Amino acid sequence: MDKIIAKGKKIAAHLMEADEADIEFADGNFTVKGTDKSVAFGQVALTAYVPHNYPIEELEPGLEESAFYDPKNFTFPGGTHIIEVEVDPDTGMLEIIQAVVADDVGTVVNPMIVEGQIHGGLAQGIGQALFEGAQYDDDGQLVTSSFMNYTMPRAADLPFFKAGIHVTPCTHNPLGAKGVGEVGSIGVPPAVINAVIDALRPRGVTDISMPATPHKIWQALNAAAAK
Fold first, then answer.
1. What number of other Cβ atoms are within 10 A of residue 208's Cβ?
2. Which pLDDT score is estimated for 58?
3. Residue 24 belongs to some domain of the structure
4. What is the Cα–Cα distance from 211 to 19, expressed in whole angstroms?
């Protein structure tokens, strides 16, 4: 954008017969400092693309520019994810009672998109923890090769999510953004498994692998009871 504005100032200066150094850009207008003379961005763009009255022969028509941005450092979003579950010890059936998350993704540009990313990440993380699994038989044949048996989570398998945002702007990029990128898919799987273990620990279960299916939970409970 900075490159386009810089080029636009050259065109605006020509249109208003002013010095390029005296041109300011704000609120979609190019203005000569200290005067009420201005031209709108649209007029500058029209001049750029219909260059019959162009300021400099060497200036290429159009307002298209490209730039490469290399940030000084990576961004590090953070947050807290809390999952509450209930387990039926007789069947191994599990229900997520509550999912509460608070994430710091830096400056939020579009709150609705950020919340959607968080919700999508929560669903993805819960799916990884409780449902989805690539299973192979003894011959190495994938037996969960379609959505019929891969077990993606459905709407009825998920609770209403409570999501909050805490903003700490990133210090090494112009927007202050850290990015959201479905943060729920990172924090939720361990939170879910920790909740499952907390529920099963009184019955002697201290470890369970993902996905923690009802059958796997039932097996773990029976194995612990047999000890």
1. 17
2. 73
3. yes
4. 68
Task: Classify the C-alpha dihedral 128-130-132-137 as positive or negative.
Answer: positive
- Residues 125 and 37 both lie in one domain: no
Tally of domains within the chain: 2
Half-sphere exposure of 61 (CA within 13 A, CB side): 9
Is it the case that residue 55 has pLDDT exceeding 80? Answer: no
Q: Which of 73, 98, 81, 82 has the alpha carbon at shortest distance from 179? A: 73
> What is the rounded distance in angstroms from the CA atom of residue 110 to the CA atom of residue 90?
45
Does residue 181 surpass a pLDDT of 90? no
Is residue 125 a contact partner of residue 189, using CB atoms and an 8 Å limit? yes
Which pair of tokens denotes residue 182?
Answer: 């479905």
Domain match, 96 and 130 both: yes
- Determine the structural domain holding residue 88 and report its residue range: 78-226
Name which residue leads in pLDDT, 61 or 85.
Answer: 85
User: Who contacts 66 (Cβ-Cβ below 8 Å, separation ≥6)?
Assistant: none
Whether 66 is in a domain gets the answer no
Strand-strand pairing, 38-40 and 29-32: antiparallel
